[in-house]
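seq:
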Amino acid sequence: MHDILFQPVKLGALHARNRILMAPLTRGRADNAGLIPTEMMATYYRQRAGAGLIISEATGISREGSGWPNAPGIWSDEQVDGWRGVTDAVHEEGGLIVLQLWHMGRLVHPDFLGGEAPVSASATHAPGHAHTYQGRKDYQPARALSREEIARVVDDYRHAATQAKAAGFDGIQLHGANGYLVDQFLRDSTNNRTDEYGGSPENRTRFLREVLAALIGVWGADRVGLRLSPNGETQGCDDSDPAATFGAAARVAQDLGIAFLELREPGPDGTFGKTDVPPQSPLIRSIYSGPLVLNSDYDAAKAAADIDAGRCDAVAFGRPFISNPDLPERIRQGAPLAENRNVPQSWYFPGAEGYVDYPTLAEEREAA
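struct:
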């Protein structure tokens, strides 16, 4: 069933055994004190190693960039050791896993920064509420990064990429989507700089280019991916001309020859980030010639149809992988998918429930 989903696909140097990728999913199960991946996280990723490629949950490159309770980091040696348990588990099952590198920018609440203001492309203020260890709190105004600080943040990304290699990952993905720091530089609602990092779409992609170049310096272009969200407003981050902005970003990806480009493109009825902005993936497909991965609200039939039509080379599934650790096998057999329980608390709250306790199809049948 949906045979095209089970054809292998080459993503740079990564040879995925199927085209059902696991999208990055924030789950908040890291050790609280050091934001260190745990044995339970290794179990979670092991269970899902049947994906053609696992893209890890968003992982903080630095204290400055981390602002989600119990989300893991990669800047310390203890975090590297924790992640090594995860990568070993995935590799023991024959899977592939890349680490998604994350700086949240203005979406880091000062509570995570010892009371200091968060940083961004410009001095802006995100709408809505941050999730903190003390509950939901209003976002606070961010300050603009200086040129010197931008260079330092690029070095933070480089360090994180080196740490990811030490942790045994097969590659890395830069989180450039969803209103976080890279996206804050890309979009004109959050970037009002007047220097070489602001103004034209090409200038607003400068930070993206510099970070990708640093990551490629560590890993090589064939093991570095990128995630973008070329849709409408997301977490207060928007753009007046998505085609110009994300066309320029696609040209950066093409120029640097990255391993794959993943696009999160929710439609008008998407679960998160609903938008009436037309999909930019056809434009991006015409500019970026490497492997294209699409994500958001896919089922198996739509994924197979889009791959068959040449709209993409693979599809990244998110929420279905939460409640279906053996998602590829269920799709292969045409079996029904399990639904997520206790949503959304089980997505983010620490504990095994709703995390590692979803049975596989084989376990369901044995129990029955």
